[in-house]
Fold these 2 entries.
Entry 1:
Amino acid sequence: MKIVIVGGGVIGLMTARELHAQGVEVLVIERGPLGGESSWAGGGIISPLYPWRYSHAVNQLAAISKTLYPPLVQQLQDESGVDCELLTSGLLITDMDEQQKAQDWAQQWSVRLDIINDSEHIHQIEPQASDIIDRGLWLPEIMQVRNPKIIKALKGSLEKRGIQYMEHTPVTSLEIDHDRIVGVNTEAGTQAADKVIIASGAWSAGLISSGQNVDIEPVKGQMIMFKGEAGLIRRMVLSAGHYIIPRKDGHVLAGSTLERTGFNKSVTEDALTELRHDAIAIIPALEQMPIERHWAGLRPGTEQGIPYICPHTEIDGLYIHAGHYRNGVVLGPASVQLMVELVLGHEPGIDPAPYAMDAVH
Ligand SMILES: Cc1cc2nc3c(=O)[nH]c(=O)nc-3n(C[C@H](O)[C@H](O)[C@H](O)COP(=O)(O)OP(=O)(O)OC[C@H]3O[C@@H](n4cnc5c(N)ncnc54)[C@H](O)[C@@H]3O)c2cc1C
């Protein structure tokens, strides 16, 4: 059996790796360089932001992925030599208005959550936090990975395993014969396939023509990166929707905007000013640090952030694996497990209904 995966972001690459591990011949076809879109642009926090605001369907995938990440990152490092910089840096949330919901969520999903009620304790957790932060929800187990590194590691792993991929090759249309997928058309010719998985992120809906809507739309996120000093800032901090993510080498990411402006990845001075201002309000030391980079990515947006992990209801052999919105890295490994089970006709480990094509996403 040959499976073509359209899109080489984290979702497509992780799916390719797992299918190949199950003995399937796989070809990833990517329009640009592997991982050059949202998967490169993201922050790599291995938790939804304010996870209690999300459905059971999202939290379930997040909980499974959390256990899969440490061994996955180790395997990727062994296969590619690339350190994905998986760090348990913890997440400090300064918003207290949903404290009860947060505590209920933590209990339900067995996540450690401490309520911090004094600024001295806040400073023990993150010495660089602003003095005006005197309360917080502290989740010490939350991890992060560094997006460009996980892309590089996945690419290295594909090469080591002999998994085929084509870069700079847009898929222009699907090849369908009597309601059955038989391949994909690219600018470099047709690729025959027994099954096709659409993992094309924000562009997925455009490739799938269907009587039923596939509601995935681009949601732009801008991010800035400060050049800091290694070890100075240690914790991820989330405050009123904005967050900072300190990397191992001292770089600090600050994000992110949520903009529904179509397939437009331009960056704006207004966003830079807002992101910098809000980051400094969290960590005043950032005021002294230069901004090294400013970029935008297009998240594959769904209304509730519940991804499509499903067979197409009208075209045999066609599958959708997209719409992870703000949580593609978080949900990736668990989402891949379910996708692979469905594609190979295995008994799914979790109920696939919330991720079906006709479910609410
Ligand atoms: C600013 C920002 C911060 C984020 N922070 C986080 C975070 O902290 N944690 C987290 O989990 N998630 C985060 N995300 C979201 C996360 O990045 C996405 O959910 C995830 O990358 C989606 O992966 P994907 O593979 O589905 O999409 P993508 O990475 O966009 O990959 C889809 C690929 O398909 C290719 N493609 C499209 N059309 C075609 C075609 N016709 N032919 C061939 N190839 C095609 C594209 O070129 C692209 O490479 C963030 C996103 C942004 C923008």
Entry 2:
Amino acid sequence: MTNTAFDCRMCGHCCEGKGGIVVSPADLQRLCAYLRMEADDVIAAYGERVNGKLKIRCGDDGYCIFFRQGKGCIVHEGKPSICKAWPFFRGNIEDAASLALAKDFCPGINPDISHADFASQGIAYLKQENLLADDARTEANALILPDRR
Ligand code: SF4
Ligand code: SF4
């Protein structure tokens, strides 16, 4: 039987903290369609520019503005690629030490998964879900895996 690398426990830990949720142009389109709002309105209501990239703002509680305690993500189907991709970020795929830290942070990552199995399952998932990125100006660096497309 396959040793599954990841099974989200819905703890919300990864939705807490500022500045990490990049919204690429394709993400913005998806979010607009989900929210039935124009891009300018979505950006004004929920976005911020950080070093040239569009990101989702944090609420006063320190969580992503789309996170609700007890409910989780209120834009689940329209959420950005970076959210769909976690924990299969470049750092965790390329570096065993980074994966070890991620296991401490995220209870959904199988603590027994080897780095090699995590990486191969992660790359397969990112490809299958079309989550890999290539434009460092507008997309999340964590989704740019050179030579993996
Ligand atoms: S930290 Fe891990 S287990 Fe918790 S919600 Fe995020 S992905 Fe799921
Ligand atoms: S968009 Fe949803 S999944 Fe992504 S950080 Fe915000 S609440 Fe979490």
